Amino acid sequence: MAMAVFKSPIKGEFHGSRNMESKEFKHHHLLHRHSSGRRRVFVQTETGCVLGMDLDRSDNVHTVKKRLQIAFNLPTEESSLTFGDMVLKNDDLSAVRNDSPLLLKRNLMHRSSSTPCLSPTGNDLQRKDLSGPIEILSHSRCFLSLKQTANDIVEAMKAGVEPIPVNGGMGGAYYFRNEKGQSVAIVKPTDEEPFAPNNPKGFTGKSLGDPGLKPSVRVGETGYREVAAYLLDHDHFANVPPTALVKITHTVFNVNDGVNGNRSREKKKLVSSKIASFQKFVAHDFDASDHGTSSFPVASVHRIGILDIRILNTDRHGGNLLVKKPDGRFGQVELIPIDHGLCLPETLEDPYFEWIHWPQASIPFSEEELDYILSLDPVKDCEMLRRELPMIREACLRVLALCTVFLKEAAAYGLCLAEIGEMMTREFHAGGEVPSVLEMLCIEAKRLIAEGDVLSLRSDVEGETEFQFDLDYSDLDSVYSSKTQTLIVKNPFSNGRSSLGKLEEEEEDETEEEAGLSLSLSKLSTSTKDNKMGSMYPNNPRDETEKTLSSHKSANVLLPVSTNFVKLADMIEAEWVVFLEKFQELLDSAFAERRTMTLRSRQRLGTSCQF
Ligand SMILES: Nc1ncnc2c1ncn2[C@@H]1O[C@H](COP(=O)(O)OP(=O)(O)OP(=O)(O)O)[C@@H](O)[C@H]1O
């Protein structure tokens, strides 16, 4: 019963680089650009400083870098300018859209651990940065309600009402208030995230763009994920508070001295401009970790679970569900999901779903929920995110597409939220972490592609797309143990092509044990989470990761280890299309297996546990 979600529109939708965008969008984009010629962009350095700049028709990468050289005292040849997945090269600024944040990076060979915080030195340029105190980085209607909130805050700032730093959490966060002193928004600067250069709580040691708290979510990129979760929450189904990316200027923000991560501005009270997520504050009474969960409405748990599955949320713990007591005596509590910074990872990760063992999650979906799931369109969702958040990485969009397809098929089969969540979650066995059923299905789909003749799919498009993904994964590979991936990918393409050189080198080292792993995968049934799987990993994959991590500096000592079993973004578009088809073909038997497991465990527990 595989659904034809990706049949016709897929061409041109799921691709590795934004310069292959759909014709329709490109046309619209070009029209817009040529009619106005001007665009406003926000350039952020790796250490967090932000400058608003107006580009006009005649600007190119070189002229922009030249202006930044004056502002940040960073020679053009020592810097690169990136926009999401893309390193902007030559004279091409055509992909950069109005309100886009760009990242100015110091080239690797010019970096040193004692690099001071790049702070703007060009007064002239700074004066030309005519940003208001809060600028929403979009003119989309989706953020209209936040415009008023921003205006209220600006009025309060004029009246001397100061924001309040949030005490808890690892990242820098601030409650911004209205004139009455009421909190109306929570602001999280991207350069104050855990391990980012200006983190106020001592968790520093990385640059923006480096792998972060979760290796598949880069430092400085949690903010746009918060916005993505809001945008994907169609019809406010799951109750995600309105969230936007902003450029915001205030003295309350933290700037470290760059070398030791010490706070330097506390006393000086200097004004800093930041790119931050800006979320509507929702008054609440407690969070889900403070309270029994039995009073939580089934519908709210289902709606939040549906969102978490789509976005592969790796951080849905109780503290990230705010709880509001009912107004009247007989009302129900309201749940407000927050903190979506660790959703949409760049590779399949182990999600964390606090609700997975709540009884509500085992109750079948209602008709209304099934209709909502049926209406979800992963192709449209990806298009919408590309439009609203042009910096979003294609790798994240593939995770979104895959998880949405999985949800749609599973719900259509009749599985409940708990069953779907469990199929996405890894288990730990004596031998280490075991891939989730979802991951095993992906591994199997990749193997099926490898068996078929997809080599021809690669021939035309290898160069550029490959490069985009190489950029993405060179960083991530250093913190992941990706043994399984290597084995799966190298088999079909071991024909001496240069872009896969790295994999070929590794192939020579293939041990008997690894060959055995390839073989086991080929015999894989979809019931993957039994103890047999443990023996497929005689060496704990986590040990490998720990070894890699130990070679990194400060922040990595504190970072959790992570295993990467499946990458999605290493496939060229044509492979991705075939992969999705194979993946869907495998789903029915996996769901049947899961259903049998549920029935068996119910029989064991007796009927008292049924709902
Ligand atoms: N939209 C909101 N409305 C009201 N309060 C909020 C909102 N978002 C966050 N908070 C409060 O701020 C606290 C910190 O927020 P959040 O968990 O998003 O930040 P964080 O730095 O990512 O935290 P952590 O490190 O625990 O993940 C929350 O525990 C919650 O109490």
Automatic annotation (TrEMBL):
<dbReference type="Pfam" id="PF00454">
    <property type="entry name" value="PI3_PI4_kinase"/>
</dbReference>
<feature type="region of interest" description="Disordered">
    <location>
        <begin position="191"/>
        <end position="212"/>
    </location>
</feature>
<feature type="compositionally biased region" description="Acidic residues">
    <location>
        <begin position="504"/>
        <end position="515"/>
    </location>
</feature>
<feature type="region of interest" description="Disordered">
    <location>
        <begin position="499"/>
        <end position="548"/>
    </location>
</feature>
<dbReference type="InterPro" id="IPR000403">
    <property type="entry name" value="PI3/4_kinase_cat_dom"/>
</dbReference>
<keyword id="KW-0067">ATP-binding</keyword>
<feature type="compositionally biased region" description="Low complexity">
    <location>
        <begin position="517"/>
        <end position="528"/>
    </location>
</feature>
<keyword id="KW-0808">Transferase</keyword>
<keyword id="KW-0418">Kinase</keyword>
<protein>
    <recommendedName>
        <fullName>1-phosphatidylinositol 4-kinase</fullName>
        <ecNumber>2.7.1.67</ecNumber>
    </recommendedName>
</protein>
<comment type="similarity">
    <text>Belongs to the PI3/PI4-kinase family. Type II PI4K subfamily.</text>
</comment>
<keyword id="KW-0547">Nucleotide-binding</keyword>
<dbReference type="GO" id="GO:0005524">
    <property type="term" value="F:ATP binding"/>
</dbReference>
<dbReference type="InterPro" id="IPR029071">
    <property type="entry name" value="Ubiquitin-like_domsf"/>
</dbReference>
<dbReference type="InterPro" id="IPR044571">
    <property type="entry name" value="P4KG1-8"/>
</dbReference>
<dbReference type="GO" id="GO:0004430">
    <property type="term" value="F:1-phosphatidylinositol 4-kinase activity"/>
</dbReference>
<feature type="domain" description="PI3K/PI4K catalytic">
    <location>
        <begin position="160"/>
        <end position="457"/>
    </location>
</feature>
